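Lecture 7 notes. Example A: sequence first, then its C-alpha cells.
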Amino acid sequence: MATPSALVNVMIEAARKAGKGLTRDFGELGELQVSKKGLADFVSAADIKAEQFLFEALDKARRGYSFLGEERGLIEGTDKSHRWIVDPLDGTTNFLHAIPHFAISIALEREGAVVAALVYNPATQDLYWAEKGKGAYLNNEKRLRVAARTRLEEAVLATGIPFLGHGQHAKFLKELHQISQRVAGVRRFGSAALDLAYVAAGRFDGFWERDLSAWDIAAGMLLVTEAGGKVSEIDGGDVLTTGNILAANLELHPLIEARLKAVT
C-alpha cells in the first residue's frame, strides 16, 4: 500500500471534498436534461464553484503559492517558486450530458517542474496520484505502470477531436488517418486528464492531442512519466506552453511520433 506525503494528502483532501459538490450537481443533471432549463449555465456554475473551493482549500494549506486555474486564470502568489495548476472539471461536455467520465485535475509546479499530481473522477472515485521520483498510484493500493505492448498493431490509443471553433480539424483528420490504419483502435473519451491517467494505468497504450491547456495535462504528464512512460511535445516545443502532447510507453512513443511527423 502506498502512503501519500503530506503534500499529496492536501491535494487528495481538496479533490475529494470538491468532488462531493460535483457529484451532487451531477445528480441534478437528469432533471435539468428533462426541463432543458439553464443546462449550460448550471454546469458553468458547478465548474466555478468547484474551482473556488479548490483555490481556498489549497491556499489555506500552502499559503502564498500561485494558482493557475481554468476559470480564474493566473493568480500570482507571494511564493514565486510554487504554482498550483488546476482544472476543476475536465470533461465538461461529458458532465453536461450526464456521462460519468470527468475529473478534477491538480498539479503542483516547483521551479517550473511538476512535482506532484492528482486526477480524480468523483463519479467512480478513482483517484490517480503521483510524486516526482516516487511513482504513480491508483488510490492507495495499486502502483501504476504503462502498458508493455511494443507493436502499433496491438495498441489502443486515445485522442481528442477538435470541436467547434477550437483546434485544427483538418490537421487532426490527417493525423487520425496516419495512426488509425496502423493501430488496433483509437478512442475519444472526452477528458485529457483521464486519458493520460489511463495511459499511466496501462489501459491506453498512448495518447496524443493538440491545442490543450496547461490545466488539462499538467497532472497527467507526471502520472505517465512516473508510471514509466514518456511525454513529449509533438513538434518539439514546450508541452505546457503549446498543449501539443504525445504520451506513451518508451517503445511505442517513437513509433507514434513517426506517424504524426508523416503528416504534411
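Example B, a different protein, same format:
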Amino acid sequence: MQLKKILSHLKSKGVVLELIGDDSVEITQVSGLDIAKPGEISFLTDKKYLTHLNTTQAEAVILQKNLAGDFPCSQILVDNPYYIYALVAQFLNPMLLSVKGIHKSAQVDASASVDDSVTIQENAVVQSNVKIGHNTVISAGAVLESGVVIGTSCRIGSNVTICHDCVVGDNVFIEAGTVIGGDGFGWANNQGQWVKIPQVGRVLIGNNVSIGNNATIDRGAIQDTVIEDNCIIDNLVHIAHNVEIGSGSAIAGQTGFAGSTTLGKNCTVAGQVGFSGHIEITDNVHFLAKSGVTHNINESGAYAGFPAVKASDWQKNSVRIRQLDKLAKQVKALQKQVDLLTE
C-alpha cells in the first residue's frame, strides 16, 4: 500500500506525526533498518544505529523528531517510534481471519452459551455452562471445562486448557499449550504421606491480557488467582495458586511465582526470575534477569541478584566479588608480613 494510507491509519489512531519525504511510495512490509529492502518500512530507537540511516534501503523510517536529517528515505517523525512501529506492523500484518461457526468435529455441550459470531475450530471441547462472547476464536484442540466464561474478541490458542469455572475478560490472547486453572501445588504431609488439598479457587483474568505459549496459571487454593488488566506474560511462565499480578505488568519467559505472591502494578520481570511465596511487591518495580525475590519489596525501582537487592547495590557487589581472589592474595601476603614482624 502507499505510505499515505499508513499515515492515514496512524492519524485515525490519534498519532501526531510529521512526514519528511514522499507519501506516495509503496510499502510492502516492515523490516530492520540495516536489512531493509526497497518497499519496506523500518524504525530507529537507538542512536547507535543512526549511521544506518545513511545507507538503509528502507522506503521509509519511523524516528524521533530530533533525529531527522538528510537521509535517502522518507521520515516519519513521532514521539515514540517503537510504539508507532508496532501499529504499522499490525496494520501491514493483520491477524488471519478464522471461518466463523462451529466445526463439525468440535464438541459443544447443549447448555453452553456461544455467541453466533464465535469461531470454534477442529476438535475443540466446550463443556457444560460455558459462556463465550462476541467474536472470540477457540482454536483447534482447545478445552473449555464446565462453567468457564470467555469475554469478547478473545483468541484461545490451539490445545489450550481452561479449567472449570475460570473467568477470562475481553480481548485476551492465550497462546498454544497454555493451561489456565490447573490445580495448585497444595499438599499436606502426615507422617511422610502426602495428602492432596482440593484447590477450590478460580483463575480470574482481566481485559487486554496476553499470555504466551505453554504457560501455567494455577487456580487458587481458597481465594482466586488474579491477573489484572493489560498484563503481558511470556512463554513458559509459571504462576502458582493465589498469586495476584497487578495491572500493566510484563513478565518474561521462565519466570516462576510461588503461591500467594502479590506483584504490584506496572512491574517488569525479566527472564528466569524466581519469587518465593507469601511476599508482596509494590508498584513500579523492575527485576533484572535471574533475580531471586525472597522478601517483601516496598520501594519502587530496579532490583537484581539473589536475594534481590537494589540494582545499584548489586552492581557494586558484583564488581567487588570479581576482586575477591585478588583481595584474598593481598590479605595472605599481608598476613605473612605480620607474622614476620611478630616472630
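Note on Example B: The first strand starts at residue 18 and ends at 20. Residues 103-315 form a domain with the UDP N-Acetylglucosamine Acyltransferase; domain 1 fold (CATH 2.160.10.10).
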